[in-house]
Write a structure and sequence with these properties.
Cofactor: Mg(2+)
Bound molecules: 6-O-phosphono-beta-D-fructofuranose
Order of helices and strands: EHEHEHEHEHEHEHEHHEHEEHH
GO biological process, one term: fructose 1,6-bisphosphate metabolic process
Subunit structure: Homodimer or homotetramer.
CATH architecture of the largest domain: 3-Layer(aba) Sandwich
Largest sheet: 7 strands, mixed
Strand content: 15-25%
Subcellular location: Cytoplasm
CATH topology of the largest domain: Rossmann fold
Main location: cytoplasm
Radius of gyration: 22 Å
Strand order of the largest sheet: 3-2-1-4-5-10-11
Distance between the termini: 59 Å
Length: about 350
Amino acid sequence: MKIGILTSGGDCPGLNAVIRGAVLKGTEIYGRELVGFRDGWRGVVEGDIIPLGRKDIQGISKEGGTILGTSRTNPFEGTNGAETVRENMERLGVDSLIAIGGEGTLAAAKRLTDAGIKIVGVPKTVDNDLSGTDYTFGFDTATQIATDAMDRLRTTGDSHGRCMVAEVMGRHVGWIALHSGMAAGAHAILIPEQKTSMDQIVEWVTSVRDRGRAPLIVVAEGFTLDTMDDAHSERGLDAFGRPRLGGIGDMLAPEIEARTGLETRSTTLGHIQRGGTPSAYDRVLATRYGMAAVDSIVNERWGRMVSLQGTEITHVGFDEALGKLNTVPQSRYDEAAILFG
Ligand code: F6P
């Protein structure tokens, strides 16, 4: 019987390295046949597969994206859920699944596990917000891209004497902002876990300006001010009351400019953080995750997610990964805050 692999949810640098690690370990060490389901759970509920042999995964660990495609399809919406999945797996001769994804994917994997389907999960997200593992693959690459971008924003900001705001990914948690902000020497790091006042941001900006430097601020997309009244000034909103140009960075920039008199520009890095070549760290982590997922399947450890604990790859039950986010602890924020202003 075959092992099926799927990549689901938003893409992430390192997905192909997981696939390669799983295929090499599965075929070369265990003599198993692997197939890939196309476009995440869509391929599972529609029975859309491609073969995954050694030649299909040659040289892919350095490639961004996923050779399998991905989607945000939920296998429990518009189908018979576990029954549809079970029927398709039986028909295609697939006895177990490796589901590579974030919270949504793993929540679906848990429901399928509860229905008796044999699944192992692999934690994927650039945001690093999954519990049950020290790091998700993709986070290191996204952080490096954000750091490089801020290094560039700094030289143009310095040249013009402007305040530069970089908006990075992080819907619920601020790991990318925290790490890239520390690495690039940002003068303020704004994250969803820490509500901050506009007055405090203005204080940091003016103290940097008064030292003759151009302020650099990194803000995670999910950040909110402690009182939104301040930011909801007319300057940041369009005629419908929506942020005029997009996200929180675009809302903060005009406010900072108005309050400090310092010309301010905002750049949203967006999906650039998810595209392109994975870092060496992510390739290695992802490859190890892929191999460990196959080990779990062969050892019949279903309903588990492979996980990094320190430097060891182990696995945890889906429950440990789900239901609570891996947020930035207060101590990590306080440590970074020593560098602010
Ligand atoms: O969850 C990862 C993430 O990159 C978030 O930081 C971001 O808000 C979201 O995905 C973007 O998703 P989409 O690809 O659907 O625009």
